[in-house]
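Fill in residues.
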């Protein structure tokens, strides 16, 4: 089952999955991080929400067992959401001390860490269920606000083990009611990602008790989003938004958007490619035709291209070559492109290097998977010279991090990537441009 959200809404999709008692995974793609709130709020130019910066697509996924929801999240694999929820139990600092369980598939890293904490008895089952219920509700709130995008439901084995299962219909009724009430807060409050800050301290202090004032000002720092505040307080987003709404109306509290942070693997540094050498591009592809084609297209334009057929050889060679951009095929023997990308992202040497996935598949599920393992962009084969050049120049002409200013050790033995397939699911995500 797949299609466009202009043809069928999320509510109907979820009901069909429930009625069919389906087991598998639902992927949803929106056109921008704020598309979930744009259609009904009449926001014309989405770029206006965050200045002039372009907005990348956003993804969500929902796991089902026999038509009931096991777990749901968006594509952010930084574990920041899990840390926010764990702060309720003073356990947020323990996330880095556990390793995600084998159940953590490429897009369920957060779930795997949660289970690891449960098995270490850091959390009780009741606390774990409370967190998952909140995560599911938060995800459904975004999805039910969405009107533009694409979806795919893939039948498959369930995410296992399961800590809890939620009936779809009661969740839909509760969340739809909140989505409708949320729309009434516009234009003063637009998205859960907005960050409140106190614009008039004296006026707020006169209205609130000292205890409430201190608590509110502790959160309203212009950096903590409404959604994060809701997580910290163990409240739903609508309750938090309604609580500050009167003060926003009066101008005592104002809302802003957080500064755009560039996670590992993005390419937005201000520096230009070093003029002392040609930009280096590595192409990892087991197909001789593709390797020759990439060399033939890029070399005449001044790029120093190295083509490597074996992904295992590539993992050691890239440290010697120190490329400025990596093109990596997805479907390869021994290691696929997702695994190669994830392994490279575990090394500090390649956390800022643009990695572009090459594939013959043209589906957004592949883009989701590429995003999860830290890929910067995605190029579908077959591609032409102008298309390849445009993509390469897009990432190199903008500057590609301060890594160009430093020289990495050329001895690959001292920078070896550990070839362990479990590493491929333990990296943080990077948005596709």
């Amino acid at each position: 089952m797949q299609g466009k959200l202009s043809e069928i809404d999320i509510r109907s999709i979820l009901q069909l999955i429930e009625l069919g008692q389906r087991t598998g995974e639902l992927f949803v793609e929106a056109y921008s991080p704020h598309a979930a709130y744009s259609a009904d709020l009449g926001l014309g130019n989405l770029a206006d929400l965050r200045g002039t910066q372009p907005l990348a697509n956003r993804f969500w996924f929902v796991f089902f067992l026999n038509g009931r929801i096991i777990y749901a999240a968006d594509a952010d694999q930084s574990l920041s959401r899990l840390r926010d929820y764990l702060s309720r139990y003073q356990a947020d600092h323990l996330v880095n001390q556990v390793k995600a369980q084998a159940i953590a598939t490429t897009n369920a890293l957060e779930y795997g860490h949660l289970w690891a904490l449960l098995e270490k008895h850091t959390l009780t089952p009741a606390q774990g269920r409370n967190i998952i219920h909140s995560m599911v509700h938060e995800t459904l709130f975004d999805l039910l606000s969405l009107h533009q995008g694409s979806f795919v439901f893939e039948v498959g084995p369930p995410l296992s083990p399961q800590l809890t299962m939620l009936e779809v219909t009661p969740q839909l009724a509760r969340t739809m009611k909140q989505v409708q009430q949320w729309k009434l807060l516009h234009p003063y409050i637009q998205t859960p990602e907005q960050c409140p800050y106190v614009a008039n301290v004296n006026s707020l202090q006169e209205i609130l008790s000292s205890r409430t004032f201190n608590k509110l000002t502790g959160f309203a720092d212009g950096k903590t989003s409404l959604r994060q505040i809701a997580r910290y307080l163990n409240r739903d987003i609508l309750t938090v938004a309604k609580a500050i709404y009167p003060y926003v109306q009066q101008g005592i509290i104002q809302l802003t958007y957080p500064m755009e942070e560039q996670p590992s693997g993005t390419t937005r540094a201000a520096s230009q490619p070093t003029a002392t050498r040609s930009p280096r591009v590595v192409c990892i592809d087991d197909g001789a035709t593709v390797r020759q084609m990439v060399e033939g297209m890029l070399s005449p334009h001044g790029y120093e291209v190295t083509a490597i057929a074996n992904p295992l050889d590539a993992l050691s060679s890239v440290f010697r070559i120190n490329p400025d951009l990596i093109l990596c095929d997805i479907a390869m023997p021994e290691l696929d492109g997702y695994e190669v990308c994830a392994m490279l992202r575990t090394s500090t040497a390649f956390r800022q290097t643009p990695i572009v996935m090459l594939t013959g598949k043209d589906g957004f599920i592949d883009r989701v998977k590429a995003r999860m393992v830290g890929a910067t962009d995605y190029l579908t084969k077959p591609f032409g010279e102008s298309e390849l050049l445009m993509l390469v120049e897009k990432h190199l002409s903008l500057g590609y991090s301060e890594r160009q200013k430093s020289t990495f050790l050329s001895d690959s033995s001292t920078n070896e990537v550990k070839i362990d397939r479990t590493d491929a699911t333990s990296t943080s995500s990077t948005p596709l441009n």
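Residues 280-425 form a domain with the Rossmann fold fold (CATH 3.40.50.2300).
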